[in-house]
Amino acid sequence: MMGSIGMMDSAYFVGRSEILSWINSTLQLNLCKVEEAASGAVHCQLMDAAHPGIVPIHKVNFDAKNEYEMIQNYKVLQDVFNKLKITKHIEVNKLVKGRPLDNLEFMQWMKRYCDNVNSGLVHNYNPLDRREACKGGKEAGRRPAHQVSAKLNNAALRPQSSHCSKRNDGSSSANIENHHLKLIKPASTTWTAYDELITELKLSVDSLEKERDFYFSKLRDIEILCQCPEIENSSIVEAVKRILYATDDDVSVMVEAQAIVSKNMNQRVNLSPIAEVAEEHIQIENQKRKNIRSQEVDAEANAVLYPRQRLSDGSDVHCGVSPLVTY
């Protein structure tokens, strides 16, 4: 089954509005933010919609508010992953904190997985009936969509109410209530804008923290590599350590590192005559081998010519003796 997918996969480019629309339409909920699903109950029901009968829905708690209650939901989800042999790692410690970016990424993965199962189509699934077996499941779909904004608006109206009552101490209570009603709409739009801005800032902070942790891990890997005994004393490693362990952003640190590398290069250049002597020695040895080889070739050639020479010598002797023979 599908496990982890790459961070550059198209699944991680799905926006929050599309994710929320998918959750609310599939499970008939009224979520306004992705982090409202941090309890893990929504994830369990999404898996129940994709694989009916696999999830023990009676163990899911939609009313989970504390971390230990949320962890129980994620245990149920992990058991379902194990049954389906899904290798996706669930970062429970991050999800229960309600961090927007972590919850968004995990929900993006959930959407990709559910889309791959039966092409994302859910047949004959009644999310309301299934939630009735859960703790707090009946009230989950009845919560108003702007419940959080309403709480913020009520909190914002309280100091305004006390301020107005002090200024208009002599006025009637009916005039004060009318004044409050006039302030409801501006306060509502203002706090909604603030709420969206806070959410965007949280996403930005989470993204920066993740990027920071990524590059820090890379630097740590480089540090471990520089501590290897085989290369620990080399000049390149010394220059890298000088940059890694610098306590400030002074330009001189980079200059010192470059000087260490340059010094090592100069030492190599000074040692070049030794290399020339060695090369000359190699050439002499090669020449000796060539001379020995040529001598062997000459010897073989002489060995081939010797029988012919003996034959010619024998004929010369016979010709020389025949005039001396007396009959």
Automatic annotation (TrEMBL):
<dbReference type="GO" id="GO:0008017">
    <property type="term" value="F:microtubule binding"/>
</dbReference>
<feature type="domain" description="EB1 C-terminal">
    <location>
        <begin position="183"/>
        <end position="253"/>
    </location>
</feature>
<dbReference type="InterPro" id="IPR001715">
    <property type="entry name" value="CH_dom"/>
</dbReference>
<feature type="domain" description="Calponin-homology (CH)">
    <location>
        <begin position="13"/>
        <end position="115"/>
    </location>
</feature>
<keyword id="KW-0132">Cell division</keyword>
<keyword id="KW-0493">Microtubule</keyword>
<dbReference type="Pfam" id="PF00307">
    <property type="entry name" value="CH"/>
</dbReference>
<dbReference type="GO" id="GO:0005874">
    <property type="term" value="C:microtubule"/>
</dbReference>
<dbReference type="Pfam" id="PF03271">
    <property type="entry name" value="EB1"/>
</dbReference>
<dbReference type="GO" id="GO:0005819">
    <property type="term" value="C:spindle"/>
</dbReference>
<dbReference type="GO" id="GO:0009652">
    <property type="term" value="P:thigmotropism"/>
</dbReference>
<comment type="similarity">
    <text>Belongs to the MAPRE family.</text>
</comment>
<dbReference type="InterPro" id="IPR004953">
    <property type="entry name" value="EB1_C"/>
</dbReference>
<dbReference type="InterPro" id="IPR036133">
    <property type="entry name" value="EB1_C_sf"/>
</dbReference>
<dbReference type="GO" id="GO:0009524">
    <property type="term" value="C:phragmoplast"/>
</dbReference>
<keyword id="KW-0131">Cell cycle</keyword>
<dbReference type="InterPro" id="IPR027328">
    <property type="entry name" value="MAPRE"/>
</dbReference>
<dbReference type="GO" id="GO:0051301">
    <property type="term" value="P:cell division"/>
</dbReference>
<dbReference type="InterPro" id="IPR036872">
    <property type="entry name" value="CH_dom_sf"/>
</dbReference>
<protein>
    <recommendedName>
        <fullName>Microtubule-associated protein RP/EB family member 1C</fullName>
    </recommendedName>
</protein>
<keyword id="KW-0498">Mitosis</keyword>
<keyword id="KW-0963">Cytoplasm</keyword>
<keyword id="KW-0206">Cytoskeleton</keyword>
